[in-house]
Amino acid sequence: MFDQQPGPDPVQMPTARGAYASPQVPGVSTGYRRWAKVFVWSAIILGVLMVVAFVLSIVLLVLADADVNNAAYGYLAIVLWAVIVVVMPILIGVAIAGAVMTRHVRRQRQAGTIPA
Question: What is the reported pLDDT for 4?
């Protein structure tokens, strides 16, 4: 082990100082911009529908509490809450994807890569 000699230094490639350029990000396609808008508007529509479902569930609970004969409204409110719980991760996923894609499109537009 001690009788081994270190190998020669690797050959250095000649380079100019400061010659490194960061990689260029390719421009976004029209399909990418279209899907960014679809995701953003889907998130907005899902958010509005969830707010409507929440308000409707509160109204249904008030109706169920007002009269014993309207007790089924309370169960409908619980179903609406279950729908809200199920749709919430979908809303979060669509909103995050839309925000990231829209930010990427804006940066490309500011860099002048894609037309306004």
Answer: 65
Distances in Å between the Cα of 109 and the Cα atoms of 1, 80, 92 are: 60, 41, 26
**Distances in Å between the alpha carbon of 86 and those of 2, 33, 45, 76, 92?**
66, 28, 16, 15, 11
List, for residues 47-75, the tens digit of each pLDDT value.
999 999 999 999 999 999 998 898 999 99
Q: Quick check: is 11 in a domain?
A: no
d(CA 32, CA 9): 48
Per the CB < 8 A criterion, the answer to whether 74 and 1 are in contact is: no
Q: Comparing C-alpha atoms, which of 20, 41, 18, 37 is closest to residue 28?
A: 37
State the pTM of this model.
0.70
Instruction: Determine the Cα–Cα distance for residues 73 and 24; give it in Å rounded to an integer.
Output: 58
- State how far the Cα of 81 lies from the Cα of 21, in Å rounded to an integer: 53
pLDDT digits (tens, 9 = 90+) for 7-24: 655 555 555 566 666 666
Would you say residue 87 lies in a domain? Answer: yes
Q: How many domains does the chain have?
A: 1
